[in-house]
């Protein structure tokens, strides 16, 4: 029974993608807020809170959707030089039922949400500023249709301070 519900939901979502595009509606937006100053000492780590906002009337799947058929939100980051991204901490999604599959709850992000990146400087890191960049990949939907997956750039700088 659950498989049938997921199969129906998939058909509706995929079928709705064309409807969302053809209807001429504004595409959904996901934006990232500027990141404040990030400072770390050689051999140390720092938590960096990355704040995102999903446009009104839209949602995106969480990092751990309840079905393998849904596209998860994924952040990929790479540091430059001696700065690396040690780990990412995603928030839990909110379980919501939608009209296209009222018996199933989807794990989604809507409105504001944050992902924490843990950055690390190598023990021999030289004092200076180092960029961290990457992308946030997501699939946005409204209550009746989904849009094709999209990515937005994510950038911030990490300052390695003197020991």
List the helices and strands and how they pair.
Elements: H1 2-22, E1 30-32, E2 39-40, E3 45-54, E4 59-61, E5 74-79, E6 83-89, E7 94-98, E8 101-109, E9 112-121, E10 128-138, E11 140-141, E12 150-160
Parallel strand pairs: 2-12
Antiparallel strand pairs: 1-3, 3-9, 4-8, 4-11, 5-10, 6-9, 7-8, 10-12
Written description of the protein model:
With 163 residues, this protein is mostly beta strands. The protein has one domain (2-160): Immunoglobulin-like (Sandwich), CATH 2.60.40.1250. Helices cover 13% and strands 48% of the residues. It contains one helix and twelve strands, in the order H-E-E-E-E-E-E-E-E-E-E-E-E. The chain has one helix at 2-22, and strands at 30-32, 39-40, 45-54, 59-61, 74-79, 83-89, 94-98, 101-109, 112-121, 128-138, 140-141, 150-160. The strands form three sheets. Strands 1-3-9-6 form a four-stranded antiparallel β-sheet, with no helix packed on it. The chain has a four-stranded mixed β-sheet with strand order 2-12-10-5, with no helix packed on it. Strands 7-8-4-11 form a four-stranded antiparallel β-sheet, with helices on one face. Strand 7 (94-98) and strand 8 form a beta hairpin. The N and C termini lie far apart (60 Å).
């Amino acid at each position: 029974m659950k498989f049938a519900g997921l199969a129906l939901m998939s058909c509706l979502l995929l079928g709705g993608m064309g409807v969302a595009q053809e209807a001429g509606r504004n595409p959904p937006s996901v934006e990232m807020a500027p990141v404040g100053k990030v400072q770390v000492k050689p051999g140390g780590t720092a938590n960096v809170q990355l704040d995102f906002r999903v446009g009104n009337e839209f949602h995106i799947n969480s990092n751990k959707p309840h079905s393998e058929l849904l596209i998860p939100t994924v952040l990929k980051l790479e540091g430059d030089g001696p700065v690396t991204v040690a780990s990412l901490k995603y928030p839990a999604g909110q379980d919501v039922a939608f009209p296209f599959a009222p018996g199933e709850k989807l794990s989604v992000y809507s409105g504001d949400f944050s992902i924490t990146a843990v950055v690390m400087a190598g023990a021999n890191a030289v004092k200076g500023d180092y960029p961290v960049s990457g992308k946030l990949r997501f699939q946005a939907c409204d209550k009746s249709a989904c849009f094709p997956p999209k990515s937005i750039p994510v950038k911030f700088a990490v300052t390695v301070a003197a020991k």
